[in-house]
Specification:
The complex is a heterodimer of chains A (110) and B (664). By secondary structure, chain A is an all-alpha fold. Chain A has 3 helices and no strands. Chain B is mostly helical and 664 residues long. Chain B has helices spanning 2-28, 48-77, 107-130, 137-156, 160-178, 186-216, 221-225, 236-253, 262-265, 271-280, 285-292, 294-298, 301-322, 328-348, 352-379, 397-411, 417-432, 435-462, 480-495, 510-527, 537-562, 567-575, 577-584, 589-635, 643-663, and strands at residues 84-85, 89-94, 97-101, 104-105. In chain B, the strands form 2 sheets. A two-stranded antiparallel sheet of chain B has the order 1-4. In chain B, a hairpin with a 2-residue loop joins strand 2 (89-94) and strand 3. In chain B, 52% of the residues are buried. Classes of the chains: A mainly alpha (110), B mainly alpha (664).
Chain lengths: 110, 664
Amino acid sequence: MNVPTDHLLALSAILFALGVLGFLVRKNVIIVLASIELMLNAANLSFLAASRHWSQTTLAGQGDPSAGPIFAIFVILVAAAEAAVGLALVIALYRLKQTVALDGMAELRG
Amino acid sequence: MSAMLWWLLFTPLVGAIVCGALHFAALRAGHGSLDQGRGGHDRHAGGAARALAGRVACAAIAVALGLSLWACLRLARGGETLVLESSTWHWIAAGSFTVDLSLVVDRLSSVMLLVITGVGFLIHVYSLGYMAHDPGYARFFAYLNLFVFAMLALVLSSSLLGLFVGWEGVGLCSYLLIGFWYEKGWPAEAAQKAFVVNRVGDACFLVGSFLLLRLFGTLDLSEIAGANFHLLGARSGEIALAALLLFGGACGKSAQFPLFTWLPDAMAGPTPVSALIHAATMVTAGVYLVLRLNPLFAAVPAVLFVIGCVGALTALIGASSALLQNDIKKVLAYSTISQLGYMFLGLSAGAWSAALFHLVTHAFFKGLLFLGSGSVIHGLSDEQDMRKMGGLKRAMPRTFLTFVAGAAALSGLPLLSGFFSKDEILARNFALGGFHLTLWGVGVATAALTAFYTWRMVALTFFGAERFDRAHVHPHESPALMTVPLVILALLSVLGGLLNLPHVLPGAGLLQHWLEPVTRAGDELLRREVEHGHVAALTEWLLLGFGAALALFFAQRGFHGYTQGPARDQALERGQPKLASFLAGAWQFDKSYHARIVLPLRAAAETLSAGFDRRGIDAAVDGAGTLARALGQHLRALADGQVKHYALWMGMGAALLSLTWVLG
């Protein structure tokens, strides 16, 4: 079964949009962080789709098909680091404010 | 050999730097601060640094004097076209415009060198005594040495640009020294006035040099002087303008009409400064400039005509203004203005050597008179008003004798230096006839006035009753450091006439022959205009006799009118108050400049400051600030601290960027 690249990209876009939506509308910091993970993985999906696409078409050989997976791994790495820092921030925030709701937080208001 | 000229130039600068360092050393040691005040004969305001400064300064000038003598001897031994030239310094090279600077000593600059370093050295020695109790001793010598350096640069430079550097340098030192006692207030104002008035002349000088650069493509003085002016006939208008502008510069520096008003105020400086800068050297820079470029001026008779008119007018204004001055230094200041006018009168007649001759003798006798007046002021504990002097010949015999010698030379009493130099200028004007006869008449009138006011000054100062407060003022003769230079200058004033005796006497025209290689080009250009330069022997004798009789008569009138004190002046003030205030106020030039130039300029400046600066420029600057602040006030709403809103903006931005990428 060969899923067309278009479909993969569409799925990626839908996942990214869901991530953005979640980021913008949810209060809970943990959900927001999860939304960020979703966006990152949507980007990963498009990387892999593009990688496969370039290795299959007539353009094969001109690009490097391994670049996409390498980027995906790199993004996973960054996501792991981001999750570690982000969760640490959430804990610090909770200690400070006794809540993890984003709405009341505007400490950096100009 | 070429290095010697650089040494000659830079030794006074080194002296100035050392004296400056010593000044700061003395300040650190606690000497020489302002709060000590001035004077105080009993207090030993010492400090090794101070004492050293005076010696260093004198030694520096002595070295320069020795090197000048050496240069003159070499010139005298060589042929008449011999010129000493130092190595060349490529100063400016910008495209086609290059300025190469070297130091040149020819027969003209050799005479100037001797005057500057010779009279300069005597005045330095005199200052050791005169300034001994002044807290700013080391600072004074630093300025004085710096002045000699600038003056030497002016005279030695091979290029008009180098000359201009010296020109500005002496102006700066003049400013510094006029305002030497700035803490008193009015000397600082006088210094500013001198600087600002000179700026008018200096601007003319600069524009004139630009014109010369355009005309000749060079600023080298010998190239300009050696140019073929006949080939430039079509551009004679531009040449005339350039010469006129340079003369404008000379008017500022040499205190000629209409820019002479700064010189009487410049007397606010210490008296040795008046002697060195405002009588002997700096104010003659304008005469030197015209002499240096004599072919340029000779090529345009119209400019010579202007020079003659300005010189004659200045001589008359100066001499008549000196008649009623009460400040002894003011008399000498107006006299200097008048004598400088004489020099320009000589230049206008093409009597180059006569002008230089008068420059040299004037440096002797006016330097002497200023130093003598300084000795009087010193002996009377800083009294300058002649109405409070009188009868000083007993208390100050050496000052008196030398002062009389100087006065006799200035007033042109027979056989003294001033007699011959003045006669030469007048005779040349007389010989030219025509309009120069009018100038001659003005010169003769000026000579009569000169004799009168000079002997009035002598009578008021040294004769008659003692009008000072004997309880508080004890006149005393000055120390040897001050009287020895006076004696030497008195000898020079008496014997200076031998330098250039009139042509009817044996041994005549030494200076004229010495100067011939420099003035030949100018003489040749002028000979097209005038056929005769010299008067017949009989006429010359008659003119000499007439001059002698005139000087003696008016000297006698001036002397006898004032031996009993200034009663005559008071009578004139009562009888004709308008005339008296007109003369005492130097024809009211200062007043009318104040009313017609200073006040309107100030009003215009205030209008501009209130209208344009505050409402225009300040408003624009303030407006920019207000605008930025208001914008920030509105934009700060964007940064509301809500992470989600930031993300929204980011997302919208990203979306916008991708849209432009996709659509574009």
